[in-house]
Structures are given as C-alpha cells and as structure tokens.
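U., I forgot to send this yesterday:
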Amino acid sequence: MDAKKKILICDDEEGIRESLKLILENDYDLVFAQNGDEAIQGMRTNRIDVTILDIKMPKKDGLETLKELMRINPSSKVIIATGYKSVDIAKEAMNIGAVDYVVKPFDRDKIRTVVQKHSS
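Result:
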C-alpha cells in the first residue's frame, strides 16, 4: 500500500488549521505550523509533498516564508491560502514558486481538488 502524502499546513488561525484537518486528514498525513518559522522547521524535518501556506501571518509573512521554503526544497509544491482576493499577491507568490492558490473561506471540494492535483 502506498504511504500517504504528507501535507504541511501553515496558518496562524487555529480555526483554519482545524478546518483543513477535517477536510484532509483521511487522505493525507498532516503536519501543522502556526507561523513561518514553524513551517520552515517542518519542511526541514519532514518529507513534505505539498504545503498550504497562509499569506497574512504575524512576524514572518507568507511570501517571506515561501522564499525560505523554496530555498530548502526547490521542488516543493506550495499552495498559497489567502483571505484577501489579492491577485497581485497571488501572482507574486507564483513568481516566487507557489504552484497554486486558494481563497478563504475554503470551498471543501476546491481545496481537495487543488491538493490532490499537486500531490499526485
């Protein structure tokens, strides 16, 4: 049997992490981070297949974290999560190396589809 893909979920809001846990826990192994530094540590200590990364976080924001994650693992698949329908930030994230983005609040089917697309 294939091992489950490992998903790193980085969001400073516990409610968002919980929502994503409920949506994804049956199909993936999940690693959680509540800030950029924890996400970077998670990337260093785990073989992460896909990261879901919040843009707006205190201290180290999502773009800064994304740059660091891409340095650690250039082939990493990072999906940006944003509550701000900012196309500019999404475009900037894609230029840095993100593979996709999703808008909060999450549509359950959309998040599953996007994660599945990038984890296969």
